[in-house]
Design brief:
Layout: H1 2-19, H2 21-29, H3 35-45, E1 65-66, E2 81-86, E3 92-96, H4 109-122, E4 130-132, H5 135-138, E5 152-154, H6 155-163, H7 168-179, H8 182-195, H9 219-232, H10 237-240, E6 244-251, E7 254-261, E8 274-283, E9 287-296, E10 299-308, H11 311-328, E11 330-334, E12 345-348, E13 354-355, E14 357-359, E15 363-367, E16 376-381, E17 386-387, E18 395-403, E19 406-415, H12 424-436
Parallel strand pairs: 1-15, 12-17
Antiparallel strand pairs: 2-3, 2-10, 4-5, 6-7, 8-9, 9-10, 11-15, 12-13, 14-19, 16-18, 18-19
Helix pairs in contact: 1-3, 1-12, 4-7, 4-9, 6-7, 7-8
Length: about 425
């Protein structure tokens, strides 16, 4: 029946193409479908073969993680502000004055490091690039690694100086190398902060040494930029877990060794979890701050302490937050390795008959209530068919995660390739083949 319909269509097309070119031109000018358009649509839709048709609708946009509300717990935190966040989902587990704008001191350098790794990822700089220290960079006070004017160090060495020893001079040297000046680098820092939704943040230098009352951020914002750094660039852990390491100063006066000693004393404290970073900060005005990252049983947490009264409280309260989080948190994750292979979906009126689809990302669900993850049910929703054109990345379905009657979240199913709509030449070619094959 299909072959007869196609033969009929070919014969009809030949007649139409001989005499309907004028008609088609006039119809096109008036915005109406031409005779040939109607024939093609009839053949492709199955109207000429008498086959019933069904409509397939693509799925809706979906979320990729689930986030319970922050817990209200009395942990005896004396610091002015604190936040505990789970890294993969961004769930805030505990908070105290999370949005209060405070001086951040050297945890400012988390954003500095984020821009450095952005530049590495884009190829703008490389780890073995050689950076020359300016007189301005040398002039930085506070915590420093005592770079000399004209001294040359690699990007990787300067990263270690920033992460491990909190070197203000190293931070400025890198800012100038990437952006040409510290002021331009700071503009980029604020731009990046705005893109991350860091609403309480305003940077005025790249190292946190300034006493300006308007160089501020919040515990929540610090957690947000810390999360971006450790999840986007997990290689930061290679540097943030260094306890001690020597660097070599080479100047016109000769060479000398300088020991970089990590300011994050949590690395050497006895804990039931693995400390992975990240950055400390303190000035007389900012008091004592830390963004501490740690991992246990597949869960990664970020504990931010701001304006603690002394350095011991800074670390002990960060450890208390981490212990609290790891005691109650369980993380369910679902990746492509754990999922069934997705079927190809038929495509109507396309240059190819079917299309491959893919999962839109991993799924994570953070539990604070001890749910049984083995009871999680995954419900796949896909259309029977799609209609061309389809672009790569288009949402065509969803994978929904259920625990009993509770919807934990969904992951998009996306088109894995682009399928263009078929044209006249495609249809004529297929019809011609059908006559002689």
């Amino acid at each position: 029946m299909k072959k007869f319909a196609k033969v009929t269509a070919v014969l009809y097309l030949i007649v139409c193409m001989l005499g309907a070119s004028g008609m088609e031109a006039r119809a096109s000018e008036e915005g109406q479908p031409s005779v040939i358009d109607e024939v093609m649509e009839s053949v492709e839709s199955g109207e000429m073969s008498g086959e019933p048709q069904e409509e397939g609708q693509p799925g809706e946009a979906v979320e990729a993680s689930a986030q319970p509300a922050a817990a209200e717990a009395d942990l005896g935190i004396t610091a002015q502000s604190a936040v505990l966040m789970e890294a993969s989902t961004g769930t805030v587990i505990y908070e105290k004055n999370p949005d209060e704008a405070l001086r951040p001191a050297s945890i400012t350098k988390i954003m500095t490091l984020l821009l450095i790794f952005d530049a590495l990822e884009s190829g703008k700089i490389a780890l073995d690039d050689q950076v020359t220290t300016s007189a301005y960079a040398k002039s930085m006070g506070g915590s420093q690694v005592f770079l000399e004017e004209g001294e040359v160090q690699s990007v990787e060495t300067l990263i270690k100086c920033i992460v491990v020893a909190s070197g203000n001079d190293a931070a400025v040297a890198m800012a100038e190398y990437i952006a040409g000046s510290e002021s331009e680098f700071v503009r980029q820092m604020n731009e990046r902060a705005a893109a991350l939704g860091m609403e309480q943040t305003n940077f005025e230098d790249c190292c946190g040494l300034t006493d300006s009352a308007t160089h501020v951020t919040s515990a929540r914002d610090v957690a947000v930029m810390s999360r971006e750094l450790i999840t986007r660039y997990p290689e930061i852990e290679r540097y943030s877990t260094i306890w001690m390491e020597n660097m070599t100063h080479t100047t016109s006066q000769g060479s000398s060794e300088f020991c970089l000693s990590n300011t994050n004393k949590l690395l050497k404290m006895s804990n039931s979890f693995t400390v992975t970073g990240l950055k400390t900060g303190s000035t007389s005005l900012a008091k004592y701050c830390v963004s501490a990252t740690a991992r246990k049983d597949g869960v990664e947490l970020i504990a931010v302490i701001m304006a603690a009264p002394d350095y011991k409280v800074r670390f002990s309260e960060a450890a208390s937050l981490l212990n609290y989080g790891f005691a109650g948190c369980r993380l369910y994750t679902d990746t492509d390795e754990d999922r069934e292979t997705l079927p190809r979906i038929p495509v109507e009126m396309g240059v190819v008959p079917e299309i491959a689809v893919r999962y839109g990302g991993e799924f994570s669900y953070l539990s604070m209530d001890g749910e049984d993850f083995t009871s999680i049910e995954k419900i796949l929703s896909l259309p029977e068919k799609l209609e061309a054109p389809v672009k790569e990345g288009d949402v065509v379905g969803s994978l929904t995660y259920m625990l009993g009657d509770q919807t934990l979240g969904t992951v998009e199913i996306q088109a894995a390739e682009t399928v263009d709509a078929a044209g006249y030449s495609d249809y004529l070619g297929w019809m011609w083949e059908s006559l002689f094959l």
